[in-house]
Amino acid sequence: MALPPSPQDVEPAAPSRRELNKAATRQAITDSALELLRSKGPGNFTVEDIADAAGISRRTFFNYFGSTDAALASIVHGFLDNAIQQLRLRPAEEPMLESAQAALMALADPKAVAPLAELFTLTQQSPLMSHTELEAWDHCRTQVFTIARERLAGTPGEQDELYVHALAGSIMSCGKAAMEVWFSRRGPDLTPGSLAELRQLLIDAMALLGAGFNTTASPSATRSS
What we know:
This protein is mostly helical and 225 residues long. It folds into two domains: 51 residues, Homeodomain-like (Arc Repressor Mutant, subunit A), CATH 1.10.10.60; 156 residues, Orthogonal Bundle (Tetracycline Repressor, domain 2), CATH 1.10.357. The protein is built from ten helices and no strands. α4 packs across α5 and α5 runs antiparallel to α9. 27% of the residues are buried.
């Protein structure tokens, strides 16, 4: 008599047609919002413009997003959610900062950071859009906090709330710092080489944090020596 398959061997159920349609609609909205941002600039298009470009009704748009800025911020959410997913796959016993660096390295294709980079370059002059992006980063910080607290539970001296909050906040701050340094160097350059540099800066920022901001031990210092 054959034994039943173990949980690890059971493949997850394929998404339903309804789920696929919803995902496609959401992506169409995001793509349309980004295209309008490219052509018109921040603040110069409406929900109706996005809906028309995506081939949906205004009501359908609001089933997915609450504003034009929220539709664009979903690009940030998408990248950060992928990074969080990779972070959750790391071994529970691995130091948190090593896990964060490995999670970013797992996003091996520089194209993975392309939408995030483009949105960053296109919204530098929009205070409202910058605020929406900050909310996305803060949402990610909350998830990092949860993962860190789960991992460090029961670890002597490291389950303190201040420690976990500071750790999660530092990881997010380093990520944002990498974006700012990249933009100061490259501006609107979205070539493969520029995107590869952004990805490396994100990884280096985590390593710098792990080294206690000892510049002589940072990857950047090593490469420049």
